[in-house]
């Protein structure tokens, strides 16, 4: 092309040059303008997409923190105990105050508030207040949802989904019903959302809207409502398009994250305003280019066109060498970048697969199903869920404080062994949930009938390898064969039930759900005759005989391999009932009425050995109490002597004395008052005050030291008790006694 150009006549070159000088800049102007506009627009859009992602990551962190807080609330013994109360009294008011403090501790340092609703007493507790449900509804829900709909929602059955509401102040409220019947509300403040938006530097002039899964508006950065956006919100995440909102042309960015939809609208005029200054500079540059181009072309053509050809040939040869090195460098850089992107997408794919599997296991509605479909997990694929609990780390055990590292390493080792053993049988998805490893194993249609058996054998091999090489021990529960995404959570529950049975009965390390299915032919038999025999032995107060009878009954009941965990728990409940009823019938008192932690420990234990040990502890207390009451003694004298010898102990109280003598605290208090005509607490305080008077007169110890010496280490408490029994403060008493001695008056 260059040679053909150089063979043209000078006139043709002149004509071609002038045409090029005017046409090319004009065309270039249009191209540059279009490209500049597109570049500005894309840069601004990409910037906002990253800012929105940062925003929803911040919101997700808060919601994940809420799930952790919910788990802590759900597992609180105090909260579960209060949830069972149905009448408000002074003790319950104190417990509600303690619940408030516990909630404050759980959510401390977070960007939200928590409210816990107890339906039995119709009260809501937060870190700031204890109010009725009506006050809470009027404060946060009145303008959002009707009271009838709200009451129906919070009284529905347990559901692991999170519901989202928006109150009249644009705050977002998450609520969920707990297993104990309570409902927990988390209030994410509007100011927190605004801080997130401002911190992430979204484009000025744009508006961020947050919608829930039903396309209801939850938050607007400008407190306005764009109207019905259902059609736009139905688009795929990341779609950018031009729309008309309130007669204004807008660019819309849509991002779906978990159950929320983020919509960001930017007026189209914003891009033109940004380009205005660039347009002026660009126009001046074009004019200057035209002038310089005309002058340069005239100069070059007036000299001669041949030197121009020579120059172009040399330029072509020179740039050819440079282009080679440039292109080589570009290719190498692109290859390196492509490899990095492949690794990034591979890691991202694994993370998305884990997230999808976790959503299926917890019953959430995942939005990334295609990622596991690509891996071969279709909606109709048969599968088996396996739950694995690592019980010992073997050689990985480390010093205190490093257990988490050992757990992570053990999970990594066991995961690789499982992939090796079970992977030969079928496609395996492994993730970690609730500190357990969970495997979802895809099986062939032809082999699904015996799939649990095959997986059972694979797990036994995996356990042998883990123990033999690393001394790592784990327990495994295998669910039954299922199909369909909705059945994943059912399979997981079956695997957990098998694992629970392993803990309860202490059977093999690997157990299948099929092994523990309820068998109608296997029932427990606890006749009235057996109950009466057990009660008669307890009445004698002979712990050894009663314990032997109870252990034999438990052994007979749990020797059946097919008995279900629920039946075992019912049997344990009957044994406990016999012990408690016999105690009340013999003594006329419930010795555990003020101390239910021993009874709670029976039902909170997971292993039959732990349950038995807790039952034995209760049986020992009951037998000792019955034996003590039935035998004549002067134990009240022992009680008084014990107090006289231990009044200096600041921990001395009714519970401590009851533990020492093996008696219920309520009985100890009652017996002392019957024999000495005053309460045990009054006697202890009078004794301490008397000893303090002696020390104030005979020693130079200060008030704090004397208080500690008589068991009242708290200075305020010491002064209050001393003044109650003497009418004087310790300092005033010492001053008065010193004055008497100075006047040769004998102290009283």
Detailed description of the structure:
The protein is of the alpha+beta class and 748 residues long. 60% of the residues lie in helices and 13% in strands. It contains 26 helices and 17 strands. Strands 3-2-1-6-5-4 form a six-stranded antiparallel sheet, with helices on both faces. Strands 12, 13, 14, 15, 16 and 17 form a six-stranded mixed sheet that branches. It has a five-stranded antiparallel sheet with strand order 8-7-11-10-9. It is extended. The termini are far apart. The model is unreliable at 1-10, 157-161 and 311-327 (pLDDT under 50).
- Count of DSSP helices? 26
Stretches with pLDDT under 50, minimum 5 residues = 1-10, 157-161, 311-327
Mean pLDDT: 76
Biggest sheet architecture: 6 strands, antiparallel
Helix content: 55-70%
| Cα-to-Cα separation, first versus last residue | 129 Å
Q: Which of globular, elongated, flat, extended, rod-shaped describes the shape?
A: extended
What percentage of amino acids are in beta strands?
5-15%
* Gyration radius over CA: 40 Å
Strand adjacency order, main sheet: 3-2-1-6-5-4
Structural class: alpha+beta
Number of strands: 17
Number of domains: 4
């Amino acid at each position: 092309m260059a040679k053909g150009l150089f063979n043209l006549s000078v006139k043709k070159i002149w004509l071609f040059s002038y045409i090029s000088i005017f046409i090319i800049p004009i065309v270039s102007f249009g191209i540059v303008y279009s490209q500049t506009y597109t570049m500005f627009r894309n840069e601004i859009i990409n910037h906002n997409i990253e800012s929105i992602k940062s925003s929803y990551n911040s919101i997700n962190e808060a919601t994940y923190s809420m799930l952790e807080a919910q788990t802590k609330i759900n597992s609180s013994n105090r909260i579960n105990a209060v949830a069972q109360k149905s009448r408000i009294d002074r003790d319950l008011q104190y417990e509600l105050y303690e619940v408030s403090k516990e909630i404050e501790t759980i959510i401390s340092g977070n960007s939200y508030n928590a409210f816990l609703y107890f339906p039995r007493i119709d009260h809501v507790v937060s870190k700031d207040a204890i109010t009725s449900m009506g006050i809470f509804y009027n404060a946060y829900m009145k303008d959002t949802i009707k009271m009838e709909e709200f009451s129906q929602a919070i009284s529905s059955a347990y559901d692991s989904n999170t519901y989202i509401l928006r109150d009249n102040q644009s705050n977002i409220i998450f609520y969920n019903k707990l297993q104990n019947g309570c409902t927990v509300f988390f209030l994410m403040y509007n100011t927190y959302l605004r801080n997130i938006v401002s911190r992430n530097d979204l484009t000025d002039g744009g508006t961020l809207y947050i919608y829930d899964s039903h396309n209801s508006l939850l938050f607007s950065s400008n407190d306005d409502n764009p109207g019905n956006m259902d059609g736009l919100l139905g688009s795929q995440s990341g779609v950018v398009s031009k729309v008309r909102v309130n007669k204004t042309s807008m660019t819309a960015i849509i991002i779906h994250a978990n159950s929320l939809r983020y919509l960001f609208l930017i007026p189209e005029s914003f891009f033109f305003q940004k380009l205005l200054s660039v347009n002026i500079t660009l126009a001046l540059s074009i004019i200057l280019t035209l002038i310089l181009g005309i002058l340069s072309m005239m100069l070059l053509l007036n000299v001669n066109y041949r030197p121009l050809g020579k120059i172009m040939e040399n330029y072509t040869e020179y740039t050819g060498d440079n282009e080679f090195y440039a292109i080589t460098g570009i290719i190498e850089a692109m290859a390196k970048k492509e490899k990095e992107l492949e690794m990034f997408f591979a890691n991202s794919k694994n993370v998305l697969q884990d997230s999808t599997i976790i959503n299926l296991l917890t019953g959430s509605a995942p939005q990334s199903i295609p990622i596991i479909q690509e891996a071969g997990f279709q909606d109709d694929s048969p599968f088996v869920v396996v739950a694995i609990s690592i019980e010992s780390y073997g050689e990985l055990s480390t010093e205190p404080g490093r257990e988490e590292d050992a757990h992570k390493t053990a999970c990594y080792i066991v995961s690789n062994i499982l992939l090796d053993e079970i992977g030969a049988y079928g496609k395996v998805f492994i993730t970690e949930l609730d500190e357990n490893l969970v495997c979802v194993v895809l099986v062939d249609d032809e082999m699904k009938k015996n799939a649990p058996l095959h997986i059972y054998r694979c797990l036994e091999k995996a356990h042998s390898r883990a123990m033999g090489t690393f001394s790592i021990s784990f327990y495994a529960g295998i669910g039954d064969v299922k199909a369909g995404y909705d059945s994943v959570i059912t399979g997981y529950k079956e695997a957990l039930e098998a694992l629970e049975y392993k803990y309860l009965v202490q059977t093999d390390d690997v157990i299948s759900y099929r092994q523990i299915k309820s068998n109608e032919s296997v029932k427990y038999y606890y006749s009235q005759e057996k109950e009466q025999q057990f009660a008669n032995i307890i009445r004698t107060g002979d712990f050894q005989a009663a314990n032997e009878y109870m252990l034999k009954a438990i052994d007979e009941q749990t020797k059946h391999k097919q008995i279900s965990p629920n039946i075992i728990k019912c049997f344990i409940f009957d044994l406990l009932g016999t012990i408690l009823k016999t105690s009340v019938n013999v003594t006329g008192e419930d010795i555990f009425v003020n101390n239910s932690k021993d009874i709670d420990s029976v039902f909170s234990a997971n292993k039959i050995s732990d349950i038995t040990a807790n039952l034995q502890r209760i049986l020992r207390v009951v037998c000792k109490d019955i034996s003590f009451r039935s035998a004549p003694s002067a134990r009240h004298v022992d009680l008084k002597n014990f107090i006289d010898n231990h009044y200096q102990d600041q921990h001395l109280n009714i519970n401590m004395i009851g533990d020492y003598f093996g008696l219920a605290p309520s009985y100890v208090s009652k017996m002392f008052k019957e024999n000495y005509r005053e309460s045990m607490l009054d006697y202890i305080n009078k004794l301490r005050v008397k000893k303090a008077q002696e020390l104030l007169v005979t020693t130079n110890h200060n008030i704090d030291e004397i208080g500690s010496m008589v068991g009242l280490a708290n200075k305020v408490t010491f002064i209050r008790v001393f003044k109650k029994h003497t009418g004087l403060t310790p300092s005033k008493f010492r001053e008065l006694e010193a004055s008497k001695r100075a006047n040769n008056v004998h102290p009283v």
